[in-house]
Amino acid sequence: MDRELEALKRISNQKTTFQLMMESNEPFRNLMETNKSFKNTVEGIERNKEYLSKHPDQKQAVKEMNDFLKNKKTKTSDNLKDFEEFKRITAETLNTKKNVSPVNKPMAERKPMNTSKDMELINAVLEAEGLPPIDIQSKPQREASKEVKNVSTSTSSAGYLVPQGLEDMIIAAMKDNSTIMSLAHLIEVKGKSTRVPVDTGDVSSSAGWLSEESNLSEFSPVVGTVNLVPAKMGTLTLVSEELYEDSSFNLAEYLESSAGTYLSSIAEQEFINGTTSGLPTGVIGASAFGITSSVTASFNGSDLVKLYSSVKQKYRKNASWIVSEKAMETILTLQGAEKYFTPATAPGHPDMLIGKPVYVSEAMADPATGEACILFGDFKYYKVGYKQIKVQALTERYADNGQVGYTTTTYVDGNLAVAEAIKHMVAL
User: Fold this and answer.
1) Phi first, then psi: what are they for 413, rounded to 5°?
2) What is the pLDDT of residues 342-351, one digit of tens each?
3) pLDDT band with cut points at 50, 70 and 90 for residue 57
4) Average pLDDT of every residue of the chain
5) N or C: at which end does the chain have fewer Cβ atoms within 10 angstroms?
6) Could you tell me which of 165, 157, 162 has the C-alpha nearest to residue 140?
7) In the chain, what is the straight-line distance between the N-terminal and C-terminal CA atoms, in Å?
8) What pLDDT score was predicted for residue 210?
9) Can you list the pairs that 107-111 forms with residues at least 24 positions away whose Cβ atoms lie under 8 Å?
10) Residue 135 and residue 150: Cα distance in Å, rounded?
11) Under 8 Å between Cβ of 297 and 368
């Protein structure tokens, strides 16, 4: 009810979408003139001004407006067909950002339609009619989808640089599906490679105490670098021509989900286990050895405490655990597990292990003799470099199948800057 009232207030002194479309959109106008019953339903939008002027009690005004619309309501199949056509024309008009102000006015005087405000009113009326709302994408989503669809007009063999909004969406999806990316330090690489400076020395090597009036001694902090040379990775997403032509289909959101999930999956494997030259260096191989468990092909609570203590305090401050599904199962079934494990206290918050966040990664090995099965430390010391994401449309290759292909590519690298910042446990 509050949403309807706000919508009514906002348009009380301005033209509604219905008025503007009746003035400038000939197909819409013809539809309304031809189908009188549905026209009467939609024209109920205009009656809000009359009610608001007659009734100081606005809630009563809205109630009477809804009563009027319900009395006008018809349930014939023709009416439902009209409604679908109304949805289609409205969505098409709004998504193409056409100026729907009166056409007889000079261009400079035309006022663009306020999509979000007017759509709230239309949907409030449709809701009162018992009809589903019109789902119009937000401007960022609409622009992202439009730009991605326009990839097909690009002739660049190198692909199309996606709009910043979509790139952020894909990176966010990769972070959501990659434990390492969600914890690591992400760095956008502009050229072929980048060097990341890192202070690898102990605190005592770069500072010291001074006596009164003494000269400052020269201290030499140990500064190393991590060289990130991103390697190319990509995924292919196929979209049916029917979906591609559907103006309500959010292509940007679909690519975000599909490309983000698959790219993060293959990246996670390398971030955890990578040993191949030219690809990300795995954190297991780059991290320092912590302990060997005291249980064959498994571990106990005491082993967890020992691994925790093996990491220096300065790295424990922002430390996290990464385990496999099987290792998490072992943790939950430990005798006295409540001493170590605390379940998440709220949605979106991580479970805690010895007071530090614990995450599950499918790339981690299950506890087995000789396998590194648990990681603990500050994963911000793992540096992930990536280059801007590109999308390229393959409009002809899959035409026989009635599909449009989209390749999504980027370049990614990863390496651990300080080995002792993260340590691993090897099962006995």
Assistant:
1) -145, 160
2) 999 888 899 9
3) low
4) 75
5) N
6) 165
7) 64
8) 73
9) none
10) 22
11) yes
Instruction: Scan for tokens 């709230």, then name that residue.
Output: 120
**The 3-state secondary structure of the chain, one letter per residue:** CHHHHHHHHHHCCCCCHHHHHHHHCHHHHHHHHHCHHHHHHHHHHHHHHHHHHHCCCHHHHHHHHHHHHHHHCCCCHHHHHHHHHHHHHHHHHHHCCCCCCCCCCCHHHCCCCCHHHHHHHHHHHHHHCCCCCCCCCCHHHHHHHHHHHHHHHCCCCCCEECCHHHHHHHHHHHHHHCHHHHHCEEEECCCCCEEEEEECCCHHHCCCCCCCCCCCCCCCCCEEEEEECCEEEEEEEEEEHHHHHCCCCCHHHHHHHHHHHHHHHHHHHHHHHCCCCCCCCCHHHHCEEEEECCECCECCHHHHHHHHHHCCHHHHCCCEEEECHHHHHHHHCCCCHHHCEECCCCCCCCEEECCEEEEECCCCCCCCCCCEEEEEECHHHEEEEECCCEEEEECCCCHHHCEEEEEEEEEEEEEECCHHHEEEEECC
Q: What is the CATH topology of the domain spanning 138-428? A: phage-related protein like fold (3.90.1690)
Greatest Cα pair distance, the chain, in angstroms, is: 96
Which residues, including other chains, have CB under 8 Å from residue 180's CB and lie 6 or more apart? Answer: 267, 268, 271, 272, 283, 322, 361, 379, 382, 384, 414
- Tell me if 260 sits within 8 A of 170, measured CB to CB: yes
pTM for the model:
0.63
Please determine, for residue 101, whether its predicted confidence score (pLDDT) is greater than 70: no
- Residue 408's closest CA among 61, 173, 111? 173
Lowest mean per-residue pLDDT among 75-84, 180-189, 256-265: 75-84
pLDDT of 86 over the 80 cut: no
Residue boundaries of the structural domains of the chain: 2-136, 138-428
Q: What is the mean pLDDT of residues 401-417?
A: 92
Which one-letter amino acid corresponds to residue 359? Y
